[in-house]
Design goal:
The protein is an alpha+beta fold and 97 residues long. It contains three helices and four strands, in the order αβαβαββ. A four-stranded mixed β-sheet has the order 1-2-4-3, with helices on both faces. Strand 3 and strand 4 form a beta hairpin. The two termini are 12 Å apart. It comes from Alkalicoccobacillus gibsonii.
Length: 97
């Protein structure tokens, strides 16, 4: 689990990022989860946008993504989900203790 201090740090880093994935009408699927895993490995911190036509609640989408990718949910703000997962090979973010 992330501490409050670590979440604040990650939120500040994510502020300038653009959402690189969009969840639409069909919600999430295995293919999307795999792509998210790859993106998290490459970037560590990503934003996912939940579109208006999505059949699922943004919190349900966030839960499904975090479970599938085993990433940490940093924040759900508006229709944007911020995720963090430490990279095995490309670790660049150093979290505060």
């Amino acid at each position: 689990m992330l501490t409050g201090k670590q979440k604040r740090f990650l939120r500040s880093k994510a502020h300038h990022l653009n959402a690189i994935f969009q969840v639409g009408k069909g919600g999430t699927n295995e293919n999307m989860i795999e792509q998210l895993k790859e993106a998290l490995e490459a970037r560590e911190l990503i934003k996912v946008s939940v579109l208006q036509n999505c059949e699922y609640d943004k919190d349900e989408v966030a839960a499904a993504i975090t479970k599938g990718t085993k990433a940490h949910l940093v924040q759900v703000i508006g229709n944007t989900i911020v995720l963090y997962k430490e990279s095995k090979e490309n670790a660049t973010l150093v979290l505060p203790r």
